[in-house]
Amino acid sequence: MATNRTFTMIKPDAVEKGHIGAILEKISSAGFKIAALKLTQMTKADAEAFYAIHSERPFFGELVEFMTRGPIVAAILEKENAVDDFRTLIGATNPAEAAEGTIRKLYAASIGENAVHGSDSDENAAIEGAFHFAGREQF
Ligand code: DAT
Ligand code: MG
């Protein structure tokens, strides 16, 4: 599988709890190279656009509220088979169902506040990376 990229966010819950360092360490140890990285905060409009695909879901308002309540760490990650391998590293959306040792199992409290985002396709990884990073911020 060719080397490619995925996009991640360390979400406000994990930032609030002081888990940035531990999560970045797990990401690096799993073989991902950081191609872009920053601490930032999404506006309501940002979160509504980023999660537009979920706009009709009953949890949409909660999701936007949560994702905008404090800073996040946004990053573009590079590795062979990046999208799928990163989804494996973070675990299931619901931490109660996430495999042992995954980031969500270790650091997430609930399905709504689940510590990290990971893109679900190469196409979305490119869209989401470009949403957060200008070309000159990507290496
Ligand atoms: P993932 O983040 O694993 O790709 P998703 O794309 O289905 O999951 O949903 C995006 C986010 O929306 C998810 O990380 C947390 C929130 N979410 C999903 N399902 C939810 C639910 N049933 N209740 C509350 N929040 C939910
Ligand atoms: Mg998703």
From TrEMBL:
What's its job? Major role in the synthesis of nucleoside triphosphates other than ATP. The ATP gamma phosphate is transferred to the NDP beta phosphate via a ping-pong mechanism, using a phosphorylated active-site intermediate.
What GO MF annotations does this protein's record show? Answer: ATP binding; metal ion binding; nucleoside diphosphate kinase activity
According to its UniProt record, which cofactors does this protein need? Mg(2+)
- Please tell me one Gene Ontology term that the record gives under cellular component: cytoplasm
Q: By its UniProt entry, which SUPFAM superfamilies does this protein fall under?
A: Nucleoside diphosphate kinase, NDK
Q: HAMAP family this protein is in?
A: NDP_kinase
Spell out the catalytic residues: H117
Q: Which UniProt keywords apply?
A: ATP-binding, Cytoplasm, Kinase, Magnesium, Metal-binding, Nucleotide metabolism, Nucleotide-binding, Phosphoprotein, Transferase
Chemical reaction(s) catalysed: a 2'-deoxyribonucleoside 5'-diphosphate + ATP = a 2'-deoxyribonucleoside 5'-triphosphate + ADP; a ribonucleoside 5'-diphosphate + ATP = a ribonucleoside 5'-triphosphate + ADP
Q: What is this protein called?
A: Nucleoside diphosphate kinase
Q: Which family does it belong to?
A: Belongs to the NDK family.
Q: Known InterPro entries for this protein? A: NDK-like_dom, NDK-like_dom_sf, Nucleoside_diP_kinase
Q: What is its EC number?
A: 2.7.4.6
Q: Where in the cell is it found?
A: Cytoplasm
Q: Does the keyword Transmembrane helix apply?
A: no
Complex and partners: Homotetramer.
Q: Decide whether keyword Electron transport is in the record.
A: no
Q: Name one Pfam family in it.
A: NDK
Q: Where along this sequence does the record place binding of ATP?
A: K11, F59, R87, T93, R104, N114
The UniProt record lists the Nucleoside diphosphate kinase-like domain at 3-137
Among the GO biological process terms of this entry, one is:
UTP biosynthetic process
Q: Which source organism does the UniProt entry give? A: Pseudotamlana carrageenivorans
| Recorded superkingdom | Bacteria
